[in-house]
Structure formats: structure tokens, C-alpha cells
Amino acid sequence: MSKTTLSVEELKAKVDQELGTSRWFPVTQERIDQFADLTEDPQWIHLDAERAAKETPFGGTIAHGFLSLSLLSAMAMDVVPGVQGTVMGINYGFDKVRFLNPVRSGSQVRGHFKLAGVEPRGDNQLLIRYAISVEIDGVDKPAIACEWLSLIVLG
Length: 155
Hints:
The structure is a single chain. By secondary structure, this protein is an alpha+beta fold. The chain has one domain: Roll (Thiol Ester Dehydrase, Chain A), CATH 3.10.129.10. 26% of the residues lie in helices and 41% in strands. Strands 2, 3, 5, 6, 7 and 8 form a six-stranded antiparallel sheet that branches. A two-stranded parallel ribbon has the order 1-4. The protein is elongated. The mean pLDDT is 96.
């Protein structure tokens, strides 16, 4: 978990800089199955290893793109610094999301975070923009490239 806390000015000074890389997160078949249950998305390319091995170019099942994307919250806890005076942070959404490469069952993924922008919103809010690449262990092409927005409310 991130232990660094920065002032607003220190954070602004880090725009266009790498914040860091998260730890590896395993993408097991059990995790994929649980995600399918929770999201009511039982598509066979995620759940049927035998069929996926025969009928897809992936050699087996793959994670839902949204499963890989949802791991960003945990990845961010590893590398994104806190901001002094924060009352709460709110997921504000994404400006860009691209699923570039499937994450095969049994893989590991980790996030690379860059601070792309810090924008004041009124007297007590900051809109923070992160450029993120999600790496698959041992694979050259990333799983995801995205721009994630977070709204910080200051006290």
C-alpha cells in the first residue's frame, strides 16, 4: 500500500512523471470464475478451458477485460501517493480504455502508473489523471492502456 503523502504542490510537480509499478496480481481460473459469477457474464471463453483451447487462438481461457481493469484499484494502492488534506477520493471514470492483449488464465499482471495531470476543480477538489499500462508477465504487449480519472475532495 502507498505510504507516501504529498502536498498538492508536490503532487503537481510530479505531472508527466512515473509514479511507480504495482506488485504482480495473479489471474487464476478461480478468480476468473468468481468474476463471471459476480458480473453474471458466463461467456465460454472465460470459463470453458477445453473449448477455449480448441476454438480460440489463446490456448485456453482468458480473463474478462473488466476483471483486468478492476484490478487497477488494488494496483493503485501500491503506487499512487496520498494527497495531504484529502477527505475522500472518488473514481471519476476513464477518458480512454483499450484492451490490447488478452490475459490468459494463470498469468500475472501489474500496473505502471504515470501522473498525467492535476487540475483544480473549485476550491476543494482536484481532478487527477493517470496514464496506466497493465503489463502481463512475460508478454511484450500490454493487456490494457488507459487514462483513469480520480476526483479528490480536500478538507
